[in-house]
Write a structure and sequence with these properties.
5-stranded mixed sheet; 6-stranded antiparallel sheet; 36% strand; disordered N terminus
């Protein structure tokens, strides 16, 4: 089963979805020796998308409503409705906040519905549905889900995030950008006392496999433990030198003969951008004054050009563009423009900028409209960030579907392979929104087929774009969308 519910791998499947409020949901399956399987649901709320309201001592707070409904065979087996408060913050300094809920659920197939609402802003709740299967062995050695964590500490007071004597802060993603050089994770090993005998030594190994299933030797670890009904493990793996690509983190339990008796894997993506050390970047006023950046003398026009770097800017650059440069003077903007491209190509930064400037014009013609420039549209942003797609299946005039496009990449600009994006429009404006992708940290919605097919048959097709794909297939086939997604060649 290939499902994503919000940038997360669960015991059974990888699951990922981004809500309009940008809340990220994660579920993991563990096992309690006495009570049986239980599922942890973690919801991470993007504080920048929730409204703040005055709270105590002149500070502000976000408030979210979270409902988790778990059904089986059409019957609700458990649910919770919670009010989640964000931290106390300054008026202009929102912070993310998080919720963790545990549900005891026997082995079986379940439907999960998640609803999130901003209690301060009001309005309708965002909702998402997902099927999950729980298959925890009842005997023998097995391993829980692998839970990525961003931090941990000794528990001083029991709370929702406490486990095995530690407070574990989940990392709600399977994507590790350049600035993250370590993977920290938590997992549990079950049943070693049953197989090896209580208190007997055993070995488990940690390794990382690349896309060709080769082990990365620099990431390999061997750990010794004593058997028990539950053996918790908090470990880390150094990925500082791991290049951009797709990987698997694998845990292996070995017996005295060094034979693997059980293994568990979790996929993750790595983006490693080799940047030039700041010590090598020397930009003075004279350099900027004699560079291509000095050609831009209109302060407002230059900021708009710099703002158009957002699709390819990362980390500190994004923060700088959004915050520090909004009120910056002309000289500072010129300096930023030059430095940005000098970091990418110190031999010929102007050529690098001109190539991107040409792409900006291309996406403006192809995807821009009267309301927004091309780079601000979803298709324009993806084109600039990941490069032009290798194939582009276009369906703008089908009576059974909303207008949609599926873009396929053999390889993206950041080294990801065999990736797809699906865009669609429900209002015929052709400003298509990104509905679904299999790229880490992008919108992922596994109801995309149903949503694209939900177009009323009586819609006036005369208002639609006259663009269409010459890759014509049977529009009434229930498999057409899936075929276009999985076989875009």
């Amino acid at each position: 089963m290939k499902n994503k519910f919000l940038l997360i791998a669960a015991l059974i499947m990888l699951s990922s979805q981004v809500f309009a409020l940008r809340a990220y949901f994660d579920y993991k399956v563990f096992n309690h020796p006495a009570d049986g399987p239980y599922v942890e649901f973690v919801t991470s709320f993007d504080g920048t998308t929730f409204m703040l309201a005055p709270a105590d001592s002149g500070l502000y707070m976000s408030k979210a409503e979270l409902m988790i409904i778990i059904s089986q065979n059409g019957n609700i087996v458990d649910y919770r409705k919670l009010n989640i408060n964000g931290p106390l913050v300054e008026a202009n300094a929102p912070q993310d906040f998080m919720s963790l809920e545990r549900f005891l659920l026997p082995n079986g197939h379940y439907d999960v519905e998640l609803e999130i609402k901003d209690l301060i802003r009001g309005g309708d709740a965002e909702s998402f549905q997902q099927e999950i299967d729980i298959k925890v062995p009842t005997s023998g050695i097995h391993i829980s889900d692998i839970q990525f964590i961003s931090a941990y500490r000794k528990t001083t007071e029991e709370n929702a995030f406490s486990k095995a004597g530690y407070d574990l802060i989940p990392y709600v993603s399977n994507y590790f950008p350049t600035e993250m050089n370590t993977i920290m994770f938590y997992s549990e090993i079950y049943g070693t006392d049953e197989v090896f005998g209580k208190g007997e030594p055993f070995v488990y190994t940690i390794c990382v496999l690349d896309a060709d299933f080769r082990q990365i030797e620099s990431c390999k670890k061997i750990k010794r433990e004593k058997s028990a009904s539950v053996v918790p493990m908090i470990q880390n793996v150094n990925i500082a030198e791991l290049p951009t690509g797709e990987y698997k983190l694998r845990l292996e339990i070995r017996n005295r003969e060094n034979v693997v008796v059980y293994e568990k894997e979790r996929s993750f993506s790595r983006s490693k951008i080799r940047t030039m050390p700041d010590s090598e970047i020397v930009v003075d006023n004279a350099t900027v004054a004699n560079s291509f950046a000095a050609q831009y003398t209109d302060r407002d026009q230059l900021y708009k050009l710099i703002e158009a770097h957002m699709p390819i800017a990362e980390g500190l650059d994004r923060i700088t563009i959004n915050n520090q440069l909004r009120e910056a003077d002309l000289q500072m903007l010129q300096s930023f423009l030059y430095t940005f491209w000098y970091r990418k190509d110190k031999v010929n930064p102007e050529a690098a900028w001109r190539a991107y400037e040409k792409q900006l014009k291309e996406v403006d013609v192809a995807f821009g409209n009267g309301k927004k420039p091309g780079w601000k549209t979803d298709r324009g942003r993806v084109y600039l960030q990941y490069g032009p797609p290798n194939t582009r299946a276009i369906r703008h005039n089908e009576t059974n579907y909303f207008p949609f496009e599926i873009w396929h990449y053999y390889e993206t600009n950041n080294g990801l392979h065999d990736r797809r994006f699906l865009f669609y429009s429900t209002d015929l404006s052709m400003d298509m929104e990104l509905l679904h992708s299999d790229v880490p940290n992008e919108v992922q919605n596994y109801q995309w087929k149903e949503m694209v097919r939900s177009r009323p048959l009586a819609l006036d097709m005369g208002k639609a774009s006259n663009l269409n794909s010459n890759q014509k297939t049977d529009p009434f086939s229930q498999d057409e969308l899936e075929n276009l997604w999985f076989t875009p060649y």
